[in-house]
Design goal:
4-stranded mixed beta sheet, binds flavin-adenine dinucleotide, Butyryl-CoA Dehydrogenase, subunit A, domain 2
């Protein structure tokens, strides 16, 4: 299959084919018929958010398909999520963002390897499908005065952070607020980043699982945003929200050596954001294919050479984006979460062990040992191989290329086609613009590329003028 890397194992091709066909069917039956309508409905009244997609996605099992089988999910792998994501993006980026924010939050919860906590949260999602009450998650990192800088291992040191966590015995209290949190409006729970010491965020970051009905947690109004209207983003406030410490997926108490903790936080920024950026890159390839498909039928009516030159640019970009999408899949496969399990014997075990045995295996893995192993591996890696580099390179490069295609499409289409809602070029442009902003703006991501290539030497980002 063209969307799979060449070194991809044959044993996983079946899942890739199945997920591709499944995602396409959902896109054709559910997303495409409603995408422009939903955009218009939210545009007319941003407080009215259509939840029909959430119910359908839940019934279809999309919220737990990529959850491990041992926790009741279907156990699909992150790279097959990338394949689905590209297909949904061809239909509506807003929907892909709903899904992306949900799985981003699950990834955050998995980062400390605290298996019992992860299992509890995952099982809620599975129960949500069974009792038809969606248990959607949201990842809450961005704060009013700290955006891109919270998504970089250097800049986080100087970020103006407000969300503080105080740990007292067996309880933790969160105070502060987050903004622009996708899914917040309908989320049943949040994966929240907060900091034990606001002056040393890089050394004191924590990730907590906080349910939306927790006293003190409140969700603000839906932001009026440019695009991806199907996925609402809102402010989330934490007013002395109290949780037991076993709801902390990651905090200093999990480590006996402070340096290990600091390195682990850095590793996570690299890994989690690097991978979610690969997800954003894939979204760009999906929209590109939609533009190509939408404009192709018009081509035989064109008489001017300049129009073919513009169209040629769109085709060229689309080919490049699809080649890069395969590279993004490959990077997810090689560096992504569960990368080790997906290769070799681990894969065989996950695919063939009965759930009861898998569960037993999971429950016997000591989180501390797993974290130590991860740290050791990370310290041995060379910077250029780090996920951060690939995530930033592909996210910034592919979303910029997509905007170039949309510029060409706008000129080609003229006002009439541009505003034609059955061919939503105008919607795609608003939706695609956000790919250049979230997961750290592209301006920051290109600096990551320079940083990972060694161009900054030993200097830190915040030392640049
Ligand atoms: C639709 C949408 C959904 C989102 N969903 C979520 C979510 O679910 N969860 C979540 O936590 N966050 C979410 N975000 C927040 C998103 O991750 C941030 O918007 C993003 O990281 C950028 O941060 P910022 O908006 O604070 O911009 P800033 O970082 O403040 O950037 C402002 C400007 O300064 C530039 N800039 C910043 N730093 C540098 C630098 N070092 N060098 C050069 N230029 C720089 C930027 O390029 C930009 O032009 C979402 C955002 C959007 C738009």
């Amino acid at each position: 299959m063209s969307f799979l890397p060449r070194d991809f194992p044959k044993s996983l091709e079946k899942e890739a084919e199945m997920v591709h066909a499944w995602a396409r069917k959902f896109a054709e039956d559910v997303l495409i018929p409603r995408a422009s309508q939903i955009d218009q409905e939210v545009w007319d009244s941003s407080t009215k958010i259509p939840s029909d997609w959430i119910e359908k996605a839940n019934d279809e099992g999309l919220f737990d398909a990529w959850i491990p089988r041992a926790f009741g999910g279907r156990g699909y792998s992150p790279w097959s999520y990338m394949i689905a994501s590209q297909v949904w993006s061809e239909a509506c980026l807003g929907f892909t963002n709903i899904m992306g924010a949900h799985y981003f939050a699950i990834t955050l919860l998995s980062c400390g390897m605290e298996i019992p906590l992860l299992e509890k949260a995952c099982r809620r999602v599975v129960e949500g499908r069974k009792n038809r009450r969606p248990y959607l998650l949201a990842g809450a990192i961005t704060e009013p005065d700290a955006g891109s800088d919270l998504e970089d291992t250097d800049l986080i040191r100087v970020a103006k952070i407000r969300t503080k966590i105080t740990i007292q015995g067996d309880t933790a209290i969160i105070q502060g607020g987050k903004i622009f949190i996708s899914n917040a409006t309908w989320a049943s729970a949040f994966a929240v980043a907060s900091y034990e010491d606001l002056k040393r965020p890089h050394q004191t970051a924590t990730i907590a699982w906080v349910e939306a009905n927790q006293p003190g947690l409140s969700v603000g109004k839906i932001e009026e945003k440019l695009g991806q209207s199907a996925c609402p983003a809102s402010e989330v406030r934490f007013d002395s929200v109290e949780i037991p410490i076993d709801q902390l997926a990651l905090y200093s108490g999990h480590f006996s050596i402070p340096k290990d903790y600091q390195d682990y936080c850095e590793l996570l920024l690299d890994e989690v954001l690097g991978n979610s950026r690969l997800g954003v890159a894939i979204m760009a390839a999906g929209v590109s294919r939609a533009i190509r498909r939408a404009l192709t039928p018009y081509a035989n009516q064109w008489k001017d050479e300049w129009k073919f030159a513009r169209f040629g640019e769109i085709l060229k970009n689309d080919e490049i984006l699809n080649i890069l999408a395969v590279e993004a899949n490959r990077r997810q496969w090689k560096n992504g979460p569960q990368a080790e399990t997906q290769r070799g014997a681990g894969l065989w075990l996950v695919q063939n062990l009965p759930t009861s045995l898998l569960k037993k295996l999971f429950s016997q893995l000591p989180p501390r040992k797993l974290r130590d192993k991860k740290l050791k591996q990370w310290r041995q890696e060379k910077p250029l191989e780090k996920t951060m580099y690939w995530g930033s390179l592909l996210k910034a490069g592919m979303s910029d290329l997509l905007m170039n295609s949309l510029d060409n499409a706008r000129v080609l289409a003229g006002a009439e086609v541009w505003n034609d809602h059955s061919l939503p070029l105008e919607k795609w442009t608003r939706d695609a613009k956000l790919l250049q902003i979230y997961e750290g703006t592209n301006a920051l991501n290109v600096i990551h590329v320079a940083k990972a290539s060694g161009a900054l030497g030993s200097r830190k980002l915040y030392e640049l003028e």
